[in-house]
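Recall the central idea of this unit: under ordinary conditions, the amino acid sequence of a chain determines the structure it adopts. In this exercise we apply that idea directly, starting from the sequence alone.
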Amino acid sequence: MTTETEQASFGPELFGFLADLKKHNDRDWFNANKARYEADVLEPALAFIEDFAPYLHQISPHLRADPRRVGGSLFRIYRDTRFSKDKTPYKTTAGIWFKHEQAKEVRAPGFYLHLGPGDVFAGGGIWHPDNQTVNRIREAIVADPDGWREATAGVSLGDGDKLKRVPTGFDKDHPLAEDLKRKDFAAIERLSEADATGPEFLQRYARACEAMAPVMRFLCRAVGVPF
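Accordingly, the structure predicted from this sequence is:
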């Protein structure tokens, strides 16, 4: 998919703001710099979500790009500190989650974009699924090991948490034992700030999602939703 004009989705100001926020992670500083947040992070991220919608629809018509300021694809900047020892009030990265249309009913996979100073990546899959969902994925891998190998060929699976042993009910000597130990099932493609601030980042991110589509398709089938 091409566009008539090529314009950068994000500017270096986004990473500059997030770097400053990491140094000054308190409410007084944020309130004094809220206009920077809205101009450099919030508005560009919402515009990116809206611009990415037609690309996403071509990859999967069942995933959603929601550009609402609250409750949409963009994660809130505010941290939930209720059960955390870290009481800093703000996230120092921007996260965008393109979730499945059935995400309210089923723990389903989605695409992710992570934007942080020196830490930019695209993701596709399921992070920290509940026990029922993770077992359905493991059962799907056992039932179709060649399909899982094919889906994950050519992509890098994230270094998420793993069990020390193959879970109960699965063969500890299974050829895909290391994948059965996974708690997270997501493909990751590392990007850079230069990628994110380049004029063709929409297309660059779309290519990353297209490469992860086989993993997403396998996971959707495993949890019983269309891709």
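Strands lie at 94-98, 110-116, 119-126, 156-157, 185-191.
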